[in-house]
Amino acid sequence: MADKPATTYIVSVFEKPHWRTVPTTKDKAKAEAMAKEIGEKVQIEEITPKGKR
After folding, report:
1. Can you tell me the distance from the alpha carbon of 42 to that of 40, in angstroms, rounded to the nearest whole number?
2. What is the reported pTM?
């Protein structure tokens, strides 16, 4: 199986005193649009699982 693992983008927002995870998506442009809509103190994490050997 040579399937490429799908990358997931997690959008998080900082609300004192913790980071809160908001939505997740497989589309980078959609994640960036959500982060822009939320405003300040937002981060986008990119997670790509390692393939099986």
Report:
1. 6
2. 0.69
According to DSSP, the β-strands at 18-25 and 42-47 are: unpaired
pLDDT tens readout for residues 2-27: 567 788 998 888 888 888 877 788 99
Please enumerate in sequence order all residues whose Cβ is within 8 A of that of 44, keeping only pairs 6 or more positions apart, or say none: 9, 10, 11, 12, 31, 32, 35
| 31 contacts: CB under 8 Å, gap ≥ 6 | 9, 10, 11, 25, 44
- DSSP string covering the chain: --PPPPPEEEEEEEETTEEEEEEEES-HHHHHHHHHHH-SSEEEEEE-PPPP-
Domain ranges of the chain: 8-47
